[in-house]
DNA sequence: ATCTATGCAAAGTTTTTGCAGCACG
DNA sequence: CGTGCTGCAAAAACTTTGCATAGAT
C-alpha cells in the first residue's frame, strides 16, 4: 500500500544534490541515490557482518536468545534501501522464502530500534516507517504533503540544538527526528497547471 | 494583552525551563494520558474570537458549511491546554454535554490542521496528538522515552534550516516537526536509585 | 429546496497479545 | 531439559467509510 518514493540526501551547507525537480515521476523505489559521504562506499557485505556482531553483542548483553529469525530480519533490513514499513519487510522476506511471523517482525524491530541499528519514523500517517541506521549518517527528512515523496538532508545545526536543549532541560537526548513538511516542486507545478486550465 | 502561555516553553538562547504534558501509566495502549481538565488558565476569550473568525473565513473560502459542531470542536480545543488525542477531546466534549460524533471530530480536526489552527504530532507511538496553534509560538518537543513526559522548546535555528532546505530542494515548506527523544532527569534519577540498591 | 455534514456503526489498518509447541543455551 | 521465542490467529487501538437524515444556505 504505502510506497517508498525516491530518496536522496542533501547536506545543507553544501550545494544541493542532483535531485533535480525534473524527473521525479513518482517511481517505485528502484532508484536509491544515496550520495557518497566518505563513510559509505563499501557495499553492505562487510557492513552486514559488523551489524550482526553488534546485534549479537546486544542480545548477549540483555540475555536474549540468538535466533535465526532475528538474524534473518536483520539481514533483510540491511539488504533493503530506503524506508519501509512492517508490511513491506514482511512481504519482502516471504518473497525470498524467509518465512517469519509478523509478531516476530515487530518484536525484532523493537529490539533493533532500541539498539539504534534501525530507526523508526512517523511521517504524518499512522504507519510506522523504518530504515537501517548503522554506519549511515544521521539525517532528516522533507516530506511532500501532496505526493508523499521523502527527501533526506543533513544539517549540522541540529546537533547543536540537540545538545543545548538536552543540557538546559536536563534530558539525556538519545536521538531526534526532524521532519519538514511542504509541497515539492513537481506538485506545485501540477497545481499551477491546473490553475491555468481553469 | 492576553498572552499568558499556559504551557511553559523553553527558548534556547534564554533559560526558562518548563514542563508539558505529564506522563502516564505505561502498559502499551491500555491507558491514556490523564485528560487535562481545560477549565483553568486564562480564558482566551478574545483569542477565541479571533480564531473563530479565521475558521469562518476558511470555511467560507472553501465553500464549507458553518455548523455548530465545527465551532463546538474548535472551542473545546482552544479551551484545552497542552496536548490531547482524539479520544480525550471526544470525552471532554461529552463531559460538557457537547455531544459530537467521532467522525465529526476527525473531520473537523483535519480541517483545522489544514488551516494551521491546530497542529498534529506523532510522538513515537501510533497515536495522533493535537494541540492548538494559533497565536502560540511555533515550538518543538523533547519527549522522555521512559515516562513519556513532553517538554516544549523554541530554537530560532530551526527556522533557518527550514528555509535553507526548502530553497535548496525546491520545496515550499509549510511546517516542521522536531522531536528530541531522551531520558529526563527524573527517570535517570530513578534508574540511578535502583542501581544503588543492587 | 438543495445538498452538505452529521451520526452511527461497521469495516479497515496497523499493532499487540495469548497460548501451544519448538529450539536456543 | 527448562524457558524464552516463534507462529498463528484473535483482539485491541485507532481511523475511515457508507448510508440515512438533520440542517445550513
Automatic annotation (TrEMBL), chains A, B:
<keyword id="KW-0238">DNA-binding</keyword>
<dbReference type="Pfam" id="PF01475">
    <property type="entry name" value="FUR"/>
</dbReference>
<keyword id="KW-0479">Metal-binding</keyword>
<protein>
    <recommendedName>
        <fullName>Ferric uptake regulation protein</fullName>
    </recommendedName>
</protein>
<comment type="subunit">
    <text>Homodimer.</text>
</comment>
<keyword id="KW-0963">Cytoplasm</keyword>
<keyword id="KW-0678">Repressor</keyword>
<dbReference type="InterPro" id="IPR043135">
    <property type="entry name" value="Fur_C"/>
</dbReference>
<comment type="similarity">
    <text>Belongs to the Fur family.</text>
</comment>
<feature type="compositionally biased region" description="Polar residues">
    <location>
        <begin position="1"/>
        <end position="12"/>
    </location>
</feature>
<feature type="region of interest" description="Disordered">
    <location>
        <begin position="1"/>
        <end position="41"/>
    </location>
</feature>
<keyword id="KW-0805">Transcription regulation</keyword>
<keyword id="KW-0862">Zinc</keyword>
<dbReference type="InterPro" id="IPR036390">
    <property type="entry name" value="WH_DNA-bd_sf"/>
</dbReference>
<dbReference type="InterPro" id="IPR036388">
    <property type="entry name" value="WH-like_DNA-bd_sf"/>
</dbReference>
<dbReference type="InterPro" id="IPR002481">
    <property type="entry name" value="FUR"/>
</dbReference>
<keyword id="KW-0804">Transcription</keyword>
Amino acid at each position: 500500500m504505502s510506497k517508498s518514493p525516491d530518496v536522496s540526501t542533501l547536506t545543507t551547507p553544501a550545494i544541493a544534490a542532483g535531485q533535480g525537480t525534473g524527473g521525479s515521476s513518482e517511481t517505485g523505489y528502484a532508484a536509491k541515490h544515496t550520495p557518497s559521504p566518505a563513510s559509505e562506499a563499501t557495499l553492505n557485505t562487510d557492513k552486514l557482518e559488523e551489524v550482526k556482531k553488534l546485534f549479537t553483542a546486544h542480545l548477549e548483553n540483555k540475555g536474549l536468545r540468538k535466533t535465526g529469525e532475528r538474524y534473518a530480519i536483520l539481514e533483510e533490513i540491511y539488504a533493503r534501501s530506503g524506508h519501509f514499513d512492517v508490511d513491506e519487510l514482511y512481504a519482502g522476506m516471504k518473497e525470498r522464502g524467509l518465512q517469519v511471523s509478523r509478531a516476530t517482525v515487530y518484536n525484532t524491530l523493537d529490539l533493533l530500534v532500541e539498539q539504534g541499528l534501525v530507526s523508526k519514523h512517523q511521517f504524518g500517517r499512522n504507519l510506522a516507517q523504518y530504515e537501517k541506521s548503522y554506519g549511515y549518517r544521521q539525517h532528516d527528512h522533507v516530506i511532500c504533503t501532496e505526493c508523499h515523496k521523502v527527501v533526506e538532508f543533513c544539517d549540522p545545526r541540529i546537533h547543536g540544538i540537540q545538545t543545548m536543549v538536552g543540557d538546559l532541560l536536563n534530558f539525556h537526548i538519545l536521538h531526534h527526528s526532524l521532519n519538514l513538511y511542504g509541497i515539492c516542486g513537481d506538485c506545485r507545478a501540477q497545481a499551477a497547471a491546473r490553475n491555468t486550465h481553469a
